[in-house]
Every structure is written in structure tokens, then in C-alpha cells.
Amino acid sequence: MTSSRKIYNFQTVIDRLENISNDPNNIEISHTCKTAAGIYPLIKIVLGQGNTRRALISAGIHGDEPGGVETVVKFLQENRHSSYMDEWEITLLPCINPYGYEFGTRENHQGKDLNRLFKVENPPLEVVFAQSIMETGFELSIELHEDNESKGYYLYQKGVDKKHEGIGLKILNSLKEIMPVNLDEEIDGSKADKGVIGKELDLSAMEWWPMAFYSYSRGTQMCLTLEAASCFELNARVDAHLSALNTALNHFHKGS
Fold first, then answer.
1. Residues paired with residue 41 on neighbouring β-strands, in sequence order
2. Beta pairing, strands 88-93 & 53-59
């Protein structure tokens, strides 16, 4: 569903990213998305380029979930990446669906839910852009989302190494003072355990893939999809996401 009224100005996001970047060359625009409302750049930022360990942080694939976009900006603005730059290359996709972000729509300018189209032939440009970055897998992929029906924070996780199975609960414990955890036994049609979904999800059985499953299929070792509850104020959603990011990165950085 498309909208005719802008909710946010994506150029403001670009300006903020350029202002807080230590090196403007880190900000790469390899694709532009042409719509009736204008041309939108699809942005990739790489920090610590060439480091041996690799993490991907993405946001804004659903345009009506602005908390993730703001989280990526704050992550840079508050220099939260600096303690990982000794060994990590961190790739940031601040907003995969900039049209949706501006107009407050889940879908892109073609009315398509991008996070359902990672297993189709000839996907939209935004999906092609994201897929191109995941062609070589990451050690860790974190996707920032929001849920307008949930009363608390929850997450999906899919990983290769059993020693990291506890990362989901560790993340939720780190943020429960900021936002309550959704403890329902079923969330959005999936079985949940204390706010964690997906340990047993079967990729081959699904007709469609979200971005996380594509990333996993390309060799990413741990995929986390983080869901903040939209019923809380934006600042709380951002703070919860930032806490989750720090916990996840610290878990892997320290080799837990």
C-alpha cells in the first residue's frame, strides 16, 4: 500500500550520516531507486574495512518501522562501533526501503513487501541491493525491525554454532529494563520461548524467504532479527535496539 503524504524526509538521514561520518568515503551509494516521488539512494557504510571478522547491521526494509533507521544513525553518532574496530568490519545498511521510510509504508514504491521477496526470481532493486552485499556470508547479521501488534520486545535467531544458542536470551535480558519482553508462547504465528523465535525454523519448507534466511543460505553464521514494540515511544525503541546491538556484538567480540 502506497501513500501520498511524506512522514519523514530521507535527505535528513543522509545529511546526518554524512555529518557524523569520520570518513565520507565510507558512505557508498551503488544503487539508486527511481520512483514517481523522486530518486532514492540505497546506502551502504563499511567501517573497519578489511578486518577479518564481519558483521552486517541493517534497518528500514519496512518503511513504517523508523526505529531501526534511527538506531543505525545513533550507533554511529554515539561512536558505539569504535570498540570493535580492532578486528571487525561492520557493514551498515541504514535504510533499505527509503521510499517507504519517507511515506511511512511497510511496502516499497511498487507496493511490495521487500522482506518477502528474497526467494523470488527478478526481485525489486532494493532486494537485489541487499542480496549483493550478502553474497559472501557474515559472522553475524542483525536486522532491526518493529512490530505494531506486540506489547514487548522479541527476536528471531538462526545460527550455525550451538555454542551461540543462548545469545537471544542474553540480548533480551540486557534490554528488559528498557522495554518489557514479549513472553507469549506464540508470536506472529510462530512458537516462541521467552521471547526467542526460530531456532527450529526450516528454510527448505518455506515458500518465501525473508532477508535473514537469504543471509543464512549464503553462509552467515548467526542471523538475528530484532523486533521492538511500536507501542513504545521512539526513544525507547531506539534504546532497546542499541542495547541489543551492544550485547550481540560484545558476545561475539569476546568470543563467548
1. 32
2. parallel
- In the numeric block, the cell 516521488 is attached to 37
Q: Which three cell numbers stand for residue 130?
A: 541487499
Ordered domains of the chain (ranges, CATH): 10-253 (3.40.630.10)
The CA distances from residue 50 to 42, 89, 123, 136, in Å, are: 22, 6, 30, 14
Q: What is the pLDDT of residue 156?
A: 97
pLDDT per residue over 36-49, tens digit each? 888 999 999 999 99
3-state secondary structure the chain: CCCCCCCCCHHHHHHHHHHHCCCHHHEEEEEEEEECCEEEEEEEEEECCCCCEEEEEEECCCCCCHHHHHHHHHHHHCCCCHHHCCCEEEEEECCCCHHHHHHCCCCCCCCCCHHHCCCCCCCCHHHHHHHHHCCCCCCEEEEEEEECCCCCEEEEEEECCHHHCCHHHHHHHHHCCCCCECCCCEECCEEEECCEECCCCCHHHCCCCCHHHHHHHCCCCEEEEEEEECCCCHHHHHHHHHHHHHHHHHHHHCCC
Residue 23: predicted pLDDT: 65
Q: Is the whole model's pTM more than 0.85, yes or no?
A: yes
* CA angle 184–190–196, rounded 5-degree value: 60
Q: Sheet harboring 140-147: ordered strands across?
A: 27-35, 38-47, 88-93, 53-59, 140-147, 222-229, 154-159, 196-197, 190-193, 186-187
The arithmetic mean of pLDDT across residues 8-24, rounded, is: 87
CA 182, 172, 163, 217 torsion-angle sign: positive
